[in-house]
Design brief:
The chain has 346 residues and is of the alpha/beta class. Helix content is 33%, strand content 17%. It contains 11 helices and 15 strands. Bound molecules: 2-OXO-1,2,3,6-tetrahydropyrimidine-4,6-dicarboxylic acid and zinc ion (2 copies).
């Protein structure tokens, strides 16, 4: 196959950040995706309707008049969040979904939930009004090995949530293990899968010296898990869909503190396609990228189409970040310096 035309994809898990970084990276999503779920873990997290509205406006003000990209906003759950804020935010179409971060499980999750049982009343409301719950599925107990945190979360937290709220719409985000793949397939929930977890296993972080370019949370696991994720994503199974989890950090910060997160929105479709091609599953890509997500969320499919062509695509070493006309930093994209097989036809 040399050419693939599909409905415009959606990104069901994206970090756009704020300010100058947002300004510089938004185009990578708004050019190629119809909609994206915008994560609320900004420096000052999106924990209220007021902040949600301001954040959405700041994104929309950067879109050109002809751009139809739709940011779907999320509210960051805390133990003190009120049911009233959740209900109004959802029914007034400000928030599309609510995001559960176990406290300290990932970047800017400090204000997340320590004791998940404490927000069961929120889940009850969400189940009743049909609001999706998006979950960072890892425990953050320092006594639990970092490579086991997803499995332990599934057993100790997710399973009870599903038992207590069987009609709650749940997406387990950025899954990284075959255990999660099996769990999602055998329960009435869905999962997003990132490009990086389809390409790398945990060795990547230790190749040629400690390498934080491949450090993200949940951390990549061993190869057998990566293979399960590839099988899941390319299966066409409706419970799996695209979520890039693109999480940009300026180079200097990443180099300095090794912070978790991989920026991939500039190469996301190219990156996924590489895997689908290797699996001989190009004909399944549209389901994963453009159909399974809206179906799960009861949204219409995008009307626009995009064409992908099998032509070499050289990934730049860095995406430069400008403030006005002055370069203030750079972000290293996933696959930096590599040549991929597919590109989006302009
Ligand atoms: N994981 N980094 C970030 C978020 C994700 O858990 C996530 O969704 C980030 O920088 O916001 C990361 O490694
Ligand atoms: Zn997460
Ligand atoms: Zn994320």
């Amino acid at each position: 196959m040399e050419k693939l035309t599909i409905r415009k994809p959606d990104d069901w898990h994206l970090h756009l950040r704020e300010g100058v970084v947002l300004k510089n990276i938004l185009k990578f999503s708004s050019d190629f995706f119809g909609r994206a779920i915008i994560m609320p873990n900004t420096k000052n997290p999106i924990t209220s309707i007021e902040r949600g509205v301001a954040y959405k406006n700041s994104i929309c003000s950067l879109l050109s008049k002809t751009n139809t990209f739709k940011p779907l906003m999320t509210i960051y759950l805390t133990e003190s969040i009120s049911n009233d804020e959740i209900k109004r935010g959802f029914l007034d179409n400000i928030f599309f979904a609510a995001k559960l971060y176990p406290a300290n499980a990932t970047t800017n999750s400090l204000y997340g939930v320590k004791n998940i049982k404490k927000i069961y009343k929120v889940f009850e409301l969400m189940q009743e009004i049909g609001m999706p719950l998006l979950i960072h599925g890892e425990v953050s107990d320092p006594m639990v090995d970092i490579f086991d945190r997803e499995e332990v979360f599934i057993d100790t937290e997710l399973n009870p949530i599903i038992k207590n709220f069987p009609d709650l719409k749940i997406v387990l985000e950025h899954i990284t293990t075959s255990y999660a793949v099996d769990f999602v397939e055998s329960n009435n929930i869905a999962a997003t899968i990132t490009p990086h977890h389809l390409h790398i296993n945990r060795n990547a972080m230790f190749f040629g010296g400690l390498n934080s370019d491949f450090y993200c949370l949940p951390v990549a696991k061993r190869e057998s898990n990566r293979i399960s994720l590839i099988k899941a994503a390319t299966s066409g199974n409706e419970c799996f869909f695209l979520g890039t989890d693109s999480a940009p950090h300026l180079r200097e910060w990443k180099a300095f503190c090794g912070c978790a997160g991989i920026f991939n929105s500039s190469v996301a479709l190219n990156s996924y396609l590489q895997v689908f091609e290797e699996e001989n599953a190009l004909e399944k890509f549209e389901k994963f990228a453009s159909i399974n997500g809206p179906k799960f969320h009861n949204l219409p499919l995008n009307n626009e189409y995009i064409t992908l062509v099998r032509e070499p695509y050289e990934v730049e070493e860095f995406v430069d970040i400008f403030d006005e006309n002055k370069k203030i930093g750079a972000i290293k994209p996933f696959h930096a310096g590599q040549t991929l097989n597919w590109r989006v036809k302009s």
